[in-house]
Amino acid sequence: xxxxKKIAVLGGGPTAMSAVYWLTSTPELRxxxxxxxxxxxxxxxxxxxxxxxxxxxxxEHGLHVLFGFxxxxxxxxRHAYAELGRPKGHPLRTWRQAFxxxxxxxxxxxxxxxxxxxxxxxxxxxxxxxxxxxxxxIFQYLSMLFQGMITLLFGWRAGYKxxxxxxxxxxxxxEGKDPPLGGKEPWGTMLVFKIGYFVLKCMTWLIWGIRRYxxxxxxxxxxxxxxxxxxxxxxxRKSRRAHRFWLDIDTMTTLMRGIVVDGLLLxxxxxxxxxxxxxxxxxxxxxxxxxxxxxxxRTIYDAAFSYENGDPNRQRVSAGATVRVLLRWVSTYxxxxxxxxQAGMGDTVFTPLYLVLKERGVKFEFFHxxxxxxxxxxxxxxxxxxxxxxxxxxDPSKEYDPLETVxxxxxxxxxxxxxxxxxxxxxxxxxLESYYSGQMGTPVTKTMGEDYDEVLFGIPISAVRFVCAExxxxxxxxxxxxxxxxxxxxxxxxxxxxxxxDLEELGWETPQPLLSLFVEPYNTWxxxxxxxxxxxxxxxxxxxNIAYFTGAQPGPTDPPDPSDLGFQxxxxxxxxxxxxxxxxxxxxxxxxxxxIGGLTTLWPGAADPENPKVLDWSRIVDPSGAEGIERVKSQxxxxxxxxxxxxxLSLPGTNRHRMKAGETGYDNLVVxxxxxxxxxxxxxxxxxxxxxxxxxxxxADEDFPIIGEWLNH
Length: 713
Ligand SMILES: Cc1cc2nc3c(=O)[nH]c(=O)nc-3n(C[C@H](O)[C@H](O)[C@H](O)COP(=O)(O)OP(=O)(O)OC[C@H]3O[C@@H](n4cnc5c(N)ncnc54)[C@H](O)[C@@H]3O)c2cc1C
Hints:
The strands form ten sheets. This protein has a seven-stranded mixed sheet with strand order 8-7-21-22-23-20-28. About 50% of the residues are buried. By secondary structure, it is α+β, with helices and mostly antiparallel strands. The chain is globular and about 75 Å long. The protein is built from 23 helices and 30 strands. Helix 5 runs antiparallel to helix 6 and helix 12 packs across helix 15. About 35% of the residues lie in helices and about 20% in strands. The protein folds into four domains: about 240 residues, FAD/NAD(P)-binding domain (3-Layer(bba) Sandwich), CATH 3.50.50; about 90 residues, no CATH class; about 150 residues, no CATH class; about 150 residues, no CATH class. Bound molecules: flavin-adenine dinucleotide. Flavin-adenine dinucleotide binds next to helix 1, strand 11, helix 17, strand 20 and helix 23.
């Protein structure tokens, strides 16, 4: 019997869970590794965590949807649900019950003093994420094209209906058959792809040749483009729809031009434009000034919270990362453009992962906050780690049991399960997930050789300067200081409302939307009413609608030192003040002055009849019976401002400073996180799950598969 290698996993976020999933994916690997996850507080999931509050309310860290191109995410979730083998009658027995196709996207545009929603029914297809390779079949592409044409010709309602006819939706989706996990790319698509790729490559080389030897052809092209633009724009201005259509054609043709001229599809192509902001890059390729403000261009900044310091006037995102992810999103999704969770993210993603990993023998040490990593004398490895055991368990011989049951579903509570904690009074009112709660608990040290052989570091980038201070200061490993100085993150806000009217009564006319580009900072809204049945409301409490809002929050470039105990409170207060403004329709977009608006712009049916700009407070469900604006206090509003909660940014010129999983400069340290060099470079679940696989490879030296890895050059 060989001794198992002890791996200490720091942080239980999506990347770490993905890594641990792969490191324990076979009986042979389980014989090799003895894995312990150290997680501060009481739950897993990190920025994807959710918890159950009063009345079983789902409280999310932030609004999350899952895009249909998340092949590796869905692969793992499908695998986990199958391995879990929940019994018949369980509310979320299968992955199909947990994730439903989302269908309506909405982009808000402020035109001539009014907000104008642009409804997009995303065409679905018959693909199933996690099956086959990264690409849909030719038939699926054609079906999407057909649905797109229907929408273009007959409007969003027709497109929406067509999707319903052609693809499995609702109950039929849940009952659909799953093709086997993984597999090969469809040969027909690959053939077209290869031909297309070859043609594009030839075009790039041809254009490079022309630019070098006959530059006037390029000038001529630009002159013709300007000439055509001048006339067509005037024609298009006669109709609102034609105008928008024309500006979008401008964006798309500019994108195509940039892809070809800059040779983005050639190896290393995307990295070449990493120094440019997405808008800068479009302008470089001739995008017109008027098009810069259109929804198609702005969307990515909102979706990725790409506001430096949370400032709407400083929207910046790497052009390389953006174009790569945009191409992946629009051209490789399966089933639907995005999926909605049918309960909290904790319940649908992290409960199954936790239960499967536990069954595989992984140990979980909750309430362990890592304070510092310490170097060995030769400064080549991590010799020890200081942690803070935030609470003591009543029975220390047992592992903390983190889950509770709500509506027959195993869920994470919104706070620790105090019945297992000795002296719970000590942590009353203290947020165990915040860096600004002050020191508490018992200091503990974990030592190399005794407690671990190797460390997998899965703590977010903004915490690195605090937790890895010795590594950042070590001149032998300058990549750490370099990364901390360059890779940044941003504060975000999250708010949720429970209403006593349904969407139609609130005055919104599409089925469940995912809406973006609205007023700051709550610029994104998703209707999440599908989870009402998963919460635990008394039958006489009339919850008919649940809405989640999110956006970037203004704040410092780096989070302040943890000794600044008032920081979280100050930022929560800002988030709340902005939320009230939003509910009173007093928010405005500093980057699009004088755009002003708020909730009643979206929901006229929820307005106070006396004052139509302000929300009728009695529409808010508040079982405590508070009056007027006080009812908002019963809802959910939170600032994700701390080192652990900020969202990683992909600022121009920074992605080359990200660290590769196994290139930390230390013998026994591997890193994982959406901030590592994971080939996708924007902060989202697929990038996180791929980062996890890359770090599992670095530990195990095994070639764990990444679906679509061949696209990541
Ligand atoms: C508001 C918001 C909305 C988002 N929406 C989407 C979306 O719709 N779709 C999508 O795909 N992605 C979305 N994302 C991005 C996604 O949530 C992240 O990319 C992902 O969670 C990153 O995973 P991670 O493992 O790198 O880090 P995290 O999720 O941050 O996990 C890190 C873990 O480390 C733990 N930790 C931190 N410090 C310590 C310490 N000192 N000791 C012990 N443990 C510690 C944390 O508690 C956490 O469990 C969103 C992010 C935010 C902020």
